[in-house]
Amino acid sequence: MKFSATLLATLLAGATSVAAHATFQQFWVGSSDKAGTCIRTPLSNSPVTSVGSGDIACNVSPRASQGLCDVAAGSTVSVEMHQQPGDRSCSNEAIGGNHDGPVIIYMAKVDDALTASATSARWFKVAQTGYQGNDYWATDGLNANCGKYTFTIPSCIPAGQYLLRAEVIALHVAGSVGGAQFYISCYTLNVTGGGSASPSTVSFPGVYSATDPGIKFDLYGGFTSYTIPGPAVFTCSGGNNSNTQPPQSSTRPTSTSTSSRSSSSSTRTSSANGSGQTLYGQCGGQGWTGPTTCASGTCKVSNQFYSQCLP
Ligand SMILES: *[C@@H]1O[C@H](CO)[C@@H](O)[C@H](O)[C@H]1NC(C)=O
Ligand SMILES: *[C@@H]1O[C@H](CO)[C@@H](O)[C@H](O)[C@H]1NC(C)=O
Ligand SMILES: *[C@@H]1O[C@H](CO)[C@@H](O)[C@H](O)[C@H]1NC(C)=O
Ligand SMILES: [Cu+2]
Fold first, then answer.
1. Average pLDDT, stretch 249-259?
2. pTM (predicted TM-score)
3. Is residue 224 part of a domain?
4. Which residue from 233, 234, 240, 265 has its CB within 8 A of the most atoms of ligand 2, so it is best to mutate?
5. Where residue 106 falls among pLDDT bands split at 50, 70, 90?
6. Is any atom of ligand 3 closer than 6 Å to the C-beta of 225?
7. Do 293 and 197 lie in a common domain?
């Protein structure tokens, strides 16, 4: 059988991406490691590619969740991604290769998180990080932080059970429609405390279109900015929220890049400076050579490999 050059290129692109696929697998409440106790674990690390499919909500027929993680409204949590099932080694990239893209977090209030239908759930966005300039994406932040992405559960949402949807959109072949790769896992939470806010919501499928500017996106086209798809991040104040700020990492380049990609950024609001690591950045762990003090927050040990500046 004779392959066309285009088909061959497609096959090669597929072959290289297989090894780099990844799955959100673990959960942290503050510095407490909940591992995989409250997640509908996807059956494989392959991405969803159809935004119109029910799989876009919580992945393809994931395993049933074993339980709920109790989380106080207003507290800090982390989702954790790795390429292979159960491999939490911090020396392997969380999501490898050139799987550049945003990290986006949604929540949906449900009656029973263990059984709730993901496609019937009504979702609001609670955190997101996209392109931060200098060729640095949210996925680079995952790789610099042992797969972890840390954010705050809104303090004003009602107590009760929720699904939490964590998503990476890998953009390495997103230049054509259907190329974007969605890596999605849903966690099952019991939120305590809270308030009486009623965020406006969206549905999966429904909220994303295959031609949204953040979904059909040319990673190699000399872009200067990136538009994260979906609604605005819900905030209790109705205004800006620290969850829209990128988790910081000392490995993020701070000088002007010589690459063809632009270094401009409209979302970056702070950067590490001489007085220590910024909030949510890494500040220690085996093999870590970056800053060990925090300009904001306190350096807390998460595990042998990872300490982080936390509020
Ligand atoms: C959720 O947390 C509340 C407050 O701690 C507790 O009373 C309730 O039993 C929990 N619900 C479930 C289903 O675990
Ligand atoms: C959010 O922050 C940006 C940048 O600091 C500012 O321009 C914008 O007006 C703020 N929006 C709201 C709703 O406060
Ligand atoms: C630098 O660190 C100080 C705290 O020592 C902080 O107040 C300031 O905002 C930081 N600057 C930037 C750009 O992050
Ligand atoms: Cu992949």
1. 38
2. 0.73
3. no
4. 240
5. very high
6. no
7. no
